[in-house]
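Researcher: Let's try something more involved. This one mixes different molecule types, so please make sure each is placed in the same coordinate frame as the others.
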Amino acid sequence: MNATSTLASGSRTGLLGAGIFAALIGVGIVTLTGHVQASALHDAAHDVRHATGFPCH
Amino acid sequence: MFTRILTSALFAGAATGLIAALLQLVFVQPVLLHAELYESGELVHFGAASAVPAEQAVGGFSPVRDGLSIVFTMLIYSGYALILVPLMALAQGRGARITARAGLIWGVCGFVAVHFAPGLTLAPEVPGVAAADVGARQVWWVLTVVAAAAAMWLIGFGKSWLHWGAAAVLLIAPHAIGAPEPEVFTGPVPTEIGALFAARALGIGMAAWVVLGGFAGYFWARETAGQGAAQPA
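Model: All components are placed in one shared frame. Result:
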């Protein structure tokens, strides 16, 4: 990995794009596990939602 | 770059999720199971002919139920890490130093944003409590978390009283406006159990977030070792 060049040039936009993409995946995972009310998901995640302070029922 | 973010976030999130799940199974789950005895009507504490002992035999490991809880806790903290690591990378690009030790403070801020700020008005609910419509509460939860996260960023990286003043407004506004509340109270669960549950959920949440921040800082610092300093601010 030629590290210095990756980060120094052209990587600001790369970092921004990669960061936004990763954060969107993160938001998706949190939404699915914490918020979606589909009953199978709700039942499976029930205890975690209560223990993690999400609105559950 | 994406691979680095993904690697750091998944290592940090999975490790934290496992620790958080074990802490929850030991300290939160027994309180939740105890509350469910009242939610289902198996136990009654008002108007019962005889007093119900406050100690109940609950617990034990339920492979499917608790196994799913472990998987979902690891998922949730991986999701948080996928948001936390890009924010760390963004701050690093603007001159902040990211280390495991600095990560601990990021963890405290994450806890305030995601658990404490919404929990201050919508306290972590034990099963069986009365609550307003779940959709309305979710909207309030999301807006409060986003406002508190923005406030944490403004407090940490703000440079003038304008920033810190805006942070204070963002922190206070959701609670001044208020969260959706139920019209009447119908909860059959003793307040003692509800209070213990909320305290335990917040306490374990803080422990988990501090661990998550530390791990995320550690893995991100490793991924970018030797490069972070070379990056122009």
